Amino acid sequence: MHDSRGQGELFDKFLSAKIENKKKELEINSEVLKRWQQRVQKFQHPFFIDNFKEPKQSELFPDWPNEKVIQLNPLRLTPLPLNFWRWPNNPHQGPAIYLVMDRPEHLTTPLLLYVGETIAADRRWKGNHDCKTYLNAYSEALVKADLPRHLSIRFWTDVPKQTKERRALEQNLIQRWLPPFNKETRSHWSTPFTTFESLKT
What is the pLDDT of residue 41? Predict the structure, then answer.
C-alpha cells in the first residue's frame, strides 16, 4: 500500500511553486510601471497642453463639462506634499476640489492620479482614505522598481460651496481626466501594482 502523505507533500510543493511563479510573473518591474504610466499620460497629455486654448465648439454644448472644468489647469495650482495636513497652519481652508499628482521623470507631462472634493480642505486628507491605499501600493511599487516618485496634492478652492454642485464638478473632472485611482475609473486602467498586492494577501 502506498503512503499518500508523500503524494500530498509533493502536491503542496507543486502548488507553492506554481503560486510563487505566478507572483514572479506579476512582480512589478520598472518597464511594467513605465508602460502603465505612459498609458495614463497618453490619455491625459492633451488636457495639460490644451488647457490654455479656447474651448472647442463641441465643448460649448450642455452635455459637455462646463467651462470651469475644461479650462482647469492643475499645473497652475500650488503643489503640496501629501503630509501637508501635519503642518501647524494649513494653507487651504473650506470647500475645495483636490488633485493628487505624480511627475515621472521620463514623461513630458505629469499624471493626475486622483480627484476628490471636500467641504474642509484642511481636514479631508487626515485619517483613512481609499486613495491613500492606492498611493501606498503605487509608491511601494516605484521604490521596488527603483523609480523616483514626485507625488503632490493640489487644492482648487474656486469651487461651489454647495456639496451637490461641488460633487457634480468633481464627477465632470473625473470623466474628463480619468484619474486611475478614482473608483469610477480603476477598472479602466487595470493598475498592475494593485493586482500584485491582491495576489500577495
Answer: 95
The arrangement of strands across the sheet holding 152-156 comes to: 111-118, 96-102, 152-156
pLDDT digits (tens, 9 = 90+) for 120-141: 766 666 666 777 888 888 988 8
Q: Mind listing the pLDDT tens digit for each residue in 21-67? A: 444 444 678 898 999 999 999 999 999 886 544 444 444 434 444 67
Structural domain contains residue 117: yes
Per-residue pLDDT at 176: 92
No. of H helices and E strands in the chain?
Answer: 7, 3
Q: What integer pLDDT is reported at residue 20 of this predicted model?
A: 53
Three-state SS at 132: helix
Q: Could you list the residue range(s) of the whole structural domain that residue 99 is in? A: 11-200
Domain count, the chain: 1
* Buried residues in 119-153 as b, exposed as e (16+ CB within 10 A): eebbebbeeeeebeebbebbeebbeebebeeebbb
Dist. CA 168–CA 148, nearest whole Å: 34
Q: Is residue 44 part of a domain?
A: yes
* Residue 39 domain-assigned (yes or no): yes
Residue 134 lies in a domain: yes
What is the C-alpha to C-alpha distance for residues 146 and 142, in angstroms, rounded to an integer? 6
CA 149, 180, 112, 115 torsion-angle sign? negative
Question: Which phi and psi angles does 104 have, rounded to 5°?
Answer: -60, 135
